[in-house]
Every structure is written in C-alpha cells, then in structure tokens.
Write a structure and sequence with these properties.
mainly alpha, 13 helices, 71% helix, MetI-like fold
C-alpha cells in the first residue's frame, strides 16, 4: 500500500506556483523618474555632447584640454576657495547658533523666530540679496553713510566686488541653511546618553568631546559639504555684486556661452562638466556621511 501511495504521489501533477500580482505602487515613482530624466539626465547628456564640439561644429576634445588655460584655473580656484570658506564659517556659526537655541534652554519663542528667519534667509539669494547688501554696506549704502555721519569718516563701506565681499554676502544664506539642517540632529541627541555620561562622572566638556560631537560629526561634515555645493553653484548673486570682474567658474561659463568676446559654447559646456564632477563628488561624500549619521541616530 505504501508503494502504491508513493507511485500515486509521483504521478500526481504538481500545482503551478501562484502568480504574483503586478504591483501598481511603482506608478508613484513615474513622476520622480520623469523629473530626473528631464532635469538631470537630459541636461547632463546635453552638456556632454556640447562639450565635444568646437565653434565650427567639428568634434574635438580640445575643450577639455583648454580647461587648464587662461583664467579658467583661477576661476575654479576662486569658486572653490569661496565655497570652502563660507561652508566652514557658515557651518561653525550655524551649529553654535542652533545649539544655543536647541540645547541652551532659551525661550521657545526664540527658537521659533530663529527657524523662521533661517527658512526665509536660506532662500533669499540672487539679485535681491546682492542689491540688499549694496544698498546697506556698499560705498553709498545706508549703514555706510550712517556711520560716516556719526564721525567714522574713514569707513568707506565693504568692497563687495572682492572675494571677501562675496564671502560676506554668501554667509547670509549659508549659516541659516546650516541651522535648518543641524537643528533636527541636535534634537536627536538622546537625553539618556547625557545622563549616562553624567552618572559616570563626565563633565559637560567631556560629554561633548567623547559623545555629542563624535555622533554629530558626520552630520556636521555632511552639511558643510552641502553648503559647499550651495555656494559653488551660485551665479546671480556673484554677477550682480562683481559685474563679472571677479573670475568665478559660473560667471566664466556664462561669458563663454553668451558673451561676445569670450564666446566658445563648447568650452563653457566643458567647464560645466567640471562643475558636475565636483558636485557629484560632493553629493557622494554627503550621502556617505548621512548614512553614518543616521546609523547613530537610529541606534
């Protein structure tokens, strides 16, 4: 009987596996992929193709070779320097400001006011920001003339066409962005960690040195990288401030594509590809640091 049952089982038809139903949840990602294609992949492809043509329309790699000639290396150096300085200075100042209102037990109204200001100031850029500083700290700005009327005749305003002037203006939207990003990370520091450190006899300095700052360091560095990219890609503010007299990579690209004297669109596209590479490295570093920060905050 056992053999007969075994034969029957061997001869029985195996039921086909149930087919998995097609999930329609993927349709929600269609707008995202369309957005990435329209505003990321297609523009990059356009830059790559445009950088391979000379002004006569012939295919060439000379545009990439010309990146080391003329004012282009200086323009990249100036943009990187301004971006690094404002990222570090804005990161430190923004972190201290966010920590003072988040962990300093200040009135809640101050925290709300700071976050509201940061949300507005971080998006206040371009021509309006440049004009605001010109009208305030320029040679004939309101604050300049007011201080001169008080007897400070030697104060001639801030030279906003210099690298220092551009850095001062960029700081206006750099540190508020740092406040907006670092404030949630500061609030994510668990009270249990500080209580455990205090129970073991650690001082406030030791807590921040061995617990608080090591946990926040990936977020701080990642946000500074984000600030670097934010300043590196700025164009309208710098153009309105300097009028193109200070060579920055975004301004030189504009001159190559639209200018009458420096008119070589292919070279401008090659410079833009250089910016894409730098921004891509920045985004990669930011992503890696954010993953490390999220690991600590989820622990």
């Amino acid at each position: 009987m056992a053999d007969v049952a075994a034969v029957r089982e061997q001869g029985a038809q195996i039921a086909p596996p149930a087919r998995s139903r097609l999930s329609w949840s993927w349709l929600g990602l269609v707008p995202f992929f369309l957005f990435c294609t329209a505003f990321l992949f297609l523009p990059v492809a356009f830059l790559i193709l445009g950088s391979l043509y000379d002004p006569e329309g012939a295919i060439t790699l000379q545009n990439y070779a010309d990146l080391s000639t003329g004012i282009i290396p200086g323009a990249f150096a100036n943009s990187i320097e301004i971006s690094v300085v404002t990222a570090i200075a804005g990161g430190i100042f923004g972190f201290l400001l966010a920590a003072s209102v988040t962990l300093g037990r200040l009135p809640r109204v101050l925290r709300t006011a700071l976050l509201t200001f940061s949300g507005v100031a971080s998006n206040f850029a371009g021509v309006p920001l440049a004009l605001a500083f010109i009208f305030t700290l320029g040679t004939l700005g309101f604050l300049t003339t007011f201080l001169q009327s008080l007897g400070l005749a030697g104060f001639r305003g801030v030279n906003l066409t210099s690298k220092l002037g551009v850095e001062i203006v960029y700081m206006y939207f750099q540190f508020p962005l740092m406040v907006l990003i670092i404030a949630p990370a500061l609030e994510g520091l668990r009270r249990e960690w500080r209580e455990a450190a205090e129970n073991m006899g650690a001082s406030a300095f030791q807590y921040w040195r061995y617990v608080g700052l090591p946990i926040l360091t990936p977020t701080i560095l990642g946000t500074m990288i984000l600030l670097f990219g934010n300043a590196f890609g700025a164009q309208a503010t710098a153009f309105q401030l300097t009028g193109g007299t200070l060579p920055l990579v975004t301004l030189v690209i504009s001159s190559q594509i639209r200018g009458d004297v420096l008119h070589n669109p292919g070279l401008g596209y090659a410079m833009a590809m250089g910016m894409v590479v730098i921004m891509g490295v920045s985004i990669l570093l930011y992503t890696l640091l954010q993953r490390r920060a999220e690991h600590w905050l989820r622990a």
